[in-house]
Amino acid sequence: MKKIELETRVIDFIQQHNLISSGEIVVVGVSGGADSVCLLHILARWRSKLDIKLHAAHLNHQLRGVESEADAKYVATLAERLDIPITIAKRDVAAYKAERNCSTEEAARELRYEFLAKVADDIGANRVAIGHTRDDQVETILMHILRGTGTSGLRGLGPCSPLPYSKGTSLRAQRSKLLVIRPLLNVTGEETLNYCQEHQLKPRIDSSNLSLSFFRNRLRLELLPLLREYNPSVDQALLRLAEIAGSDISYLEQQAFQLWDEVARQEDDAIYLDKGEIAALPIALQRQLIRLAIARLAGDTRDIEANHIEAIRSLLSKPVGKRTSLPHGLVCWNGYDEVVIAVSQSPEGNESTQDLGLSTFRLFCPFPLLQGVFPLKVPGETVLPGWRVVASIVGEQVPSLSLRGAKQRNNLIAEFDFDKAGAELFVRQRQPGDGFQPLGMDRPKKLQHFMIDAKIPLLWRERIPIVCSPRQIIWVVGWRIDDRVKVTEATKEILRLEFIRL
After folding, report:
1. Percent above pLDDT 70 for the chain
2. What is the span of the domain harbouring residue 324?
3. I need a surface site. Which of 223, 420, 440, 448 has the fewest CB within 10 A?
4. Which H/E stretch holds residue 499?
5. Which distant-in-sequence residues (6+ apart) come within 8 Å of 177 by Cβ?
6. Over the stretch 343-379, which tens digit does the pLDDT of each residue have?
7. CATH no. for residue 350?
8. Are 376 and 499 in contact (CB under 8 A)?
């Protein structure tokens, strides 16, 4: 491949995908290896025609001692020769790895993107060019498959994507506008190496790329050669899979964007997904809407795997209050009518309820604050703080369609034997010493113990409406009625209560 042909292909790729606009400043991440050196050199040769300004950025990970220092000096010399300003910095990856309790690869990646984001912010750039090649694409797709990706992960690397960032970064807001571009995604590693040789660029060789202690290296050096013995065209097969998956996902993304306002709402650092609307959609769209919600909160869906999406989908049919933790410091809670995905105030999305903080935890509570005692109009409607309660009396003792609908509405509707429950009902908060006989049990139980066994979050318990008669509790709204007022074959009239959020 002649050098001019490679350059033309790269520039055509940039223009085809609108990666860079005229007048833009582009930060170029340069490690000193063949891929990034090739990228910087090509962009430097074409900067006048593209009408762009370049700024090189190199991060010393301090993992290879003298070798790392030599890489930094090489990149600095190259940038000076190409008349490109450069920012060089050091980060202690080993210390960050120990602090975050993550792999060396993950620690290096997070610190690298953190550094690139800072450089871009400092110079007013919104594009960061990375030297990912077609080889990186093949490895990424295969790595996603091995880790259990969903369809979205089959796309691998995109020509342009939001800049990833680590948890708790102070640049979170700015990063929403930062994009990573990959102009070499249609070029092989062999081609970049040949380009560097032809231009006598003498790129650095990273000895750590030969270490089998890194997952990506084992995949590149051991697994891919083995797979090529089974299918010499496995690289092309994986790239074709990525292309097909990309087309399918693009369509689903378009549909998800069109549905967004109907099924979701965002308030600050929380997104509320309407359970009824989401559950009625095809599963493929459910998954895509969940991914979209995560992306809007986290900036990208890096580290979000298929099992995370399915854990959130499972909440559509689980009891209120169930919770799951996600990467990027996100947490997800199951409310009555909505699934809530939000940024936890706990820096690492700690599993402990106490670590969430009072304001964050109450963010997920589906119950408005209820203080005082409120008589119910039976039959009729009663307006309470945050609620409207509809009471009706049904003369026929049959399993009603409305009750079956109530199960789909997460138990905000309940039915009772009217003669046993009576018409003198009122709603209040729980009180010390409360007890009732939960449906299906043959003896009373303390309300506190019931709430603990039902895994009702501690900070919700004061807000749960308790429906009482003068004799007893008849309903812990959203969870259980009292067994002594249940509908039986002997029931003559059914009292139906429905709580509706205002």
Report:
1. 89
2. 262-363
3. 440
4. strand 494-501
5. 126
6. 875 444 444 443 444 444 455 666 788 889 999 999 9
7. 3.30.465.60
8. no
